[in-house]
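ok so dumb question maybe but i'm new to this and my supervisor (M.) told me to 'just get the structure for DNA-binding response regulator' and walked off. so i did the thing. is this what she meant?? sequence i used:
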Amino acid sequence: MRVLVVEDEQVLADAVAVGLRREAMAVDVVYDGDTALEHTAVNDYDVVVLDRDLPGVHGDEVARTLVQESYNGRILMLTASGGVQDKVEGLTIGADDYLAKPFAFAELIARVHALGRRSVPPLPPVLERHGITLDPANHRVHRDGREIPLTPKEFAVLQVLMRAQGTVISAEGLLEKAWDENADPFTNVVRVTVMTLRKKLGDPPVIQTIPGAGYRL
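this is what came out, is it supposed to look like this??
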């Protein structure tokens, strides 16, 4: 899952990003509304964690713009204003969910996971394919009942492949969904990660390499 965190309190924004990355999410961080719109114009995010009170372009306007452009990513709006009317306004503007500050980080994680499942078609809480089960909320993977320990990046790649439901994902597609914007597109990091993931999943192999196209589970 790829997430954009938009928050002008840099310490909070960076802390949220660190926590989400521990959940095997690829996270980009920006600190104002203008930069947020620049990022959403070129990147496909599953979830945008959006502070409402932003400098430059206000968070409300960012949400309105994404809705008007039919952006596929879900919006989790953060704000220090947690009253009922504030929540109603945020949801009316176009937010898919609303979380008041201060918040429990476990709740933020749960809400991001829940929003990430609201794709088209909708995804179940636990993904299953070829004897493999992947539980994003608890960060656990099993194959035929055996738990398989994965690194956060291996987990992220497997999640992208399982969400694809048998379609081929290019190396560029994996890089876009499982790594943040700081990843070097000219490295072999995708190939190496897929190779180690394939070994950990064991036999019979379930990740296919499609020459010239990408990977399929």
